[in-house]
Amino acid sequence: MSRETYQVPTGQTGYTGAGGVVEGTTSDSVSVTYVCGDCNSRVSMKRGDQIRCKECGHRVLYKERTKRFVAVCIPPSLQATNVLGPVGN
Q1: pLDDT tens-digit profile of 11-51?
Q2: Where are the residues of the annotated region Disordered (predicted)?
């Protein structure tokens, strides 16, 4: 593609990732909760916020685990064998 035909993508339309799925959100009101690596306080952040704890100013934040149910399907061939080794005793 030549430089003359390149069009700069706009931030409002999202972007088409692999598989043709449109990624991104239209509203910036979604906040994600992180845990500070220093003082363990919960920090709620929105897109564009500075990555910094609001209590102590520490810059290492860890994303909390999801609260969604995650199901694991074990194939029958692995159910009969003890993959993890002996349990308990």
Answers
A1: 555 555 554 444 555 555 789 999 999 999 999 999 999 99
A2: 1-20
Phi, psi at residue 48, to the nearest 5°? 95, -10
- pTM assigned to the model: 0.46
Architecture of domain 29-75: Single Sheet (2.20)
State both tokens at 57.
């100013």
Measured distance CA(31)–CA(35) in Å, rounded: 13
The region that residue 57 occupies, defined by phi over 0 for left and psi between -120 and 50 for alpha, beta otherwise, is left
Which tokens go with 46? 């929105």
**CA R_g for the chain:** 22
Are the C-beta atoms of 75 and 83 separated by less than 8 Å? Answer: no
Q: Parse the chain into domains and list their residue ranges.
A: 29-75
CB atoms within 10 A of CB 61: 19
